[in-house]
Amino acid sequence: MKTVSAHRLILIQLRMALLCVVLAVLGGAAGVLHYLPELSPRLNEWGLGLAKLRPVHTSFASVWIFGAAVAVVYHFLSTSGGGLTRGDGIRFRVHTVCWLAAGVGILVTLLLGVTSGREYLGFHPLFSILLLLGWVMFAISFLKRSLPGFFKQPVYLWFWTVGVLYFIYTFIEGHAYLLPKVGDHPVRDLQIQWKSCGTLVGSFNFMVYGCLFYVTERMSDDKSYGQSKLAFLLFGVGCLNSFTNYAHHTYHLPQSHAVKWIAFVVSMAEVLILLRLIIDLRRMLKRKLGAAPYSTALACLTAAKWWTAAILFSSVLISIPNLNSIIHGTKVVIGHAMGAELGIDTMILFGAVAFLLGELGGRRSPATQRLNQPRQRLLLLTMNLSMAALILWLTVSGAAHGYYRYNGLPNPEWIGYERVLFPLLGGLVSVSLLAVVLGFSPLLFQRAASALVEPVSPEPEVESATP
Fold first, then answer.
1. Which end of the chain is more exposed for a tag (fewer CB within 10 A), N or C?
2. Chain mean position to CA 215
3. Residue 357 CB neighbours (<10 A)
4. Residue 288 has pLDDT above 70, yes or no
């Protein structure tokens, strides 16, 4: 028996997730202002040094991806197996309190200068206890629904199940530096830190890919792709990649060349399959849906298609060991990470958010129609074009810096233009991204009890054997 309004629960999770992306954008935008010599000293005086702002940006960017995926999973839970149970509602309250408390604590302590100095896990490890406890509560609610008959489930449940379990493992592994046998040995610490970072990204990739398949299936009402051989091929390659992709980050550390080549080949296979899938899914949606009622979600998926192609091309280049040794530690890596997290993950998740809000608000409601107006798609186009310009600049200037550094030469004068271009282009990305989030607000903050439509459980699916 339901004890929590499903649409209200999903809205709460969406609000928290989108608040995280806003905090990540504000932290990143304030950080790039340090490239302006006139503003950097003033920001330091206000206690907003770059060392404080960067972990705010990276931490909340990661939490945004997980948080948005959790909202999609709750939509699935609310529309299958009889909906949400009393226990689901209690666990939702527990993990929401844990995550809110951790979020506030992380933001305050990072701005106060309390940091672990780690990548992606830059906050004090005490907050990790709250984050992990909340994730375990969420995992219980999800796994008790997904595990029965698991081997006959659609592929998005496979992605989510592995992502949920893999996050727990990688999150704990990322704290191995607290052990003296790791923290007291720099090379061992770097090996484990970069391995855990790579696998942590793998865990949220699983969550995002699951969202891609689930949302596409719901929009198209076509369940065939969720059981296709290609979908399960992506899952299998993704699993293998999650255990090997860390090698891209550790080329500069003692490591077998065989490990490097395995990581390179498997990673390229995953991105190539993902590109093929996004092209197929977008073509299917466009053929079945036309312009409405999911035009904004379709625009996000279109953007993700182009970004996946671009990231595939850049991944091939930066994963070649000789080139990697030149660009490692330059802004090429920053641009690549931004392209993957904003261009692929965030575009897929923005599409998922647009779908969820349209479903909850009613496909024909005025607020849903406003969400799918050309203005929202224009904002998405502006965001993607400005992001493309920023990442192109980061890639070109970073590659040049790496080349001149490798040859022991001073940087050319034009690289110094980043003091203006980085804040300018970063500001355009930030403003347009915040405008896209603002476009979600008419549906995001309506009163759930009167304005939103409760999700309806679909008919039981016919079980079919997986490949």
1. N
2. 16
3. 25
4. no
